[in-house]
């Protein structure tokens, strides 16, 4: 629905049985009962209001990942949408507590004053994000703008969002998760036997295992999202096109790059997005091109396949320049903060911490000033994909050296590898309030590897 200046979407969160593995019924938590949820499409600078109705048996929180969103709509982990008709959590007086939780339905308002980008929305409930996303609560939210539209990049049926994730299934077809209750009741979201995060052995693309897509011998824009709880992928095309550079990256998490960047392989950590142009005209008609995962083994070593089905006209172009990127140049006096991502003790048990402390939604760990560029140094003991809410950042250095091949452009998630430190420049804009910094390994997040900060 669309009214003057505002686009409206209505989404019902519900339990649904769907067929993921052929011949099996799998109960999921689905936005509109589907996994992934419906793709929301917005225009930069035009408000989108998404009204969520929670018909699930558990409370939820919706976060628009990559959205430049006022704090009250950002999906703070304790800002719950309670299930429709659930009066038990109302505290007796029959009204939702002002400003912090709501019952049944909740309208999230997204001004989207940001460049075109591939965003995604997912659950963000404190301590329960990992199992709730695993059960299906994730979907794309695309933002378009004039800069992007003028570029004549591949579009329409040649512009394809690919949500990649791994899942495990029980013998009856239900999703297998260490703490999931088979009756879909609420279960604690801590997984101390799974310190590295929960991995599946089936790779799904847009909710289907190892799918095949027939393509024209033409350029395609693939919007790659790693929506896995914990798995990192090293994507490559097999066979690689002659001359290499099969993936031409055009955008990162938060929008277009300054110029196309060719890659033979792409390392993609949880929550990262890479938009690439793949030119299937570089292959003879009839070629089967496998999107492989070089970090996987056995069933997780392949993601999907493309079959180059026919010759076709191609009016798209790959411009040499894409967008103006303002380089953030923090001055000598720029505020600096350090964030150490490491194992620690959480509630008397093993868990994950930032600066030695577990997440506390009431404790502000930093108060950055709006409009000021800061340098944040992120340290990691092991692999941690670190995500910052509200505003994107630019990677300045890795271990004191220049950024890596996958760090280009505006990012909102950066893949920290074991014993690394990464400096990012970040400038928070416009919205005052409480936001998050966390590891996007969702089990790590639930095991308390999250910090709150308040923009002032
Ligand atoms: Cu994609 Cu704070 O999350
Ligand atoms: Cu986010
Ligand atoms: Cu982590």
Automatic annotation (TrEMBL):
Species, as recorded: Saccharomonospora marina XMU15
Record PROSITE patterns: MULTICOPPER_OXIDASE2, PROKAR_LIPOPROTEIN, TAT
Key words, A-Z: Metal-binding, Oxidoreductase
Protein family membership: Belongs to the multicopper oxidase family.
Reaction(s) catalysed by this chain's protein: 4 Cu(+) + O2 + 4 H(+) = 4 Cu(2+) + 2 H2O
One GO molecular-function entry: oxidoreductase activity
Record note on quaternary structure: Monomer.
Domain of life: Bacteria
Domain Plastocyanin-like stretches: 20-78, 102-146, 350-455
SUPFAM superfamilies the UniProt entry points to: Cupredoxins
Organism classification: Bacteria, Bacillati, Actinomycetota, Actinomycetes, Pseudonocardiales
PANTHER family: BILIRUBIN OXIDASE, CUPREDOXIN SUPERFAMILY PROTEIN
Protein name (database record): Multicopper oxidase CueO
InterPro entries on file: Cu-oxidase-like_N, Cu-oxidase_C, Cu-oxidase_fam, Cu_oxidase_Cu_BS, Cupredoxin, TAT_signal
The EC number(s) this enzyme carries: 1.16.3.4
